[in-house]
Amino acid sequence: MTVHDLADGFTLRPMMESDVDAIHTLETSTNPHPWTPGIIRNCLTTGDRCWILEKGGALAGYTVTMFAVGEGHLQNIAIAPSFQRQGLGQKLMSFITNDLKALGAEVIFLEVRVSNRKAIELYLKNDFTEVGRRNNYYPCAKGGREDALVMVRDLSFAE
Description:
This protein is an alpha+beta fold. It has a single domain, classed as Gcn5-related N-acetyltransferase (GNAT) (Aminopeptidase). Helices cover about 30% and strands about 40% of the residues. It is built from four helices and eight strands; from the N terminus they run ββααβββαβαββ. It has helices spanning about 20-30, 35-45, 90-105, 115-125, and strands at about 5, 10-15, 50-55, 60-70, 70-80, 105-115, 130-140, 145-155. The protein has an eight-stranded mixed β-sheet, sandwiched between helices. Strand 4 (about 60-70) and strand 5 (about 70-80) form a beta hairpin. The longest helix is centred in the middle third of the chain and has 16 residues, at about 90-105. The mean pLDDT is about 95.
């Protein structure tokens, strides 16, 4: 994996072990039930596609995807609060789509909390459609469980 220059001084680079603490801090600021440092480290050792979005050395966001047997899976995507509302989620989605398609993915799957309206809007804008629901899939911060929408994007028609 190489470094990719994006517009406006943003770059994408492969995630490293030294990024784990900063990613966990970002996760804690954006997710009601954040990934632990152990989960993040595990992604680095299992062959997942782990990318850091930076501007001037500052962590702006990150994404983790996996690829197997013609299928991509978006495991996580997050933009730091101070970098939100700048179109960076869209830039990451375009990158993810192109990266997985280049690996041979014919579809991309994801799960998203039913309450995460901003993410659902981003996914719908990127041609994902709802194909199912996982009842009581996500734990909630104050107890209980929340459903997940299962979404898919068909890449066979993507440019």
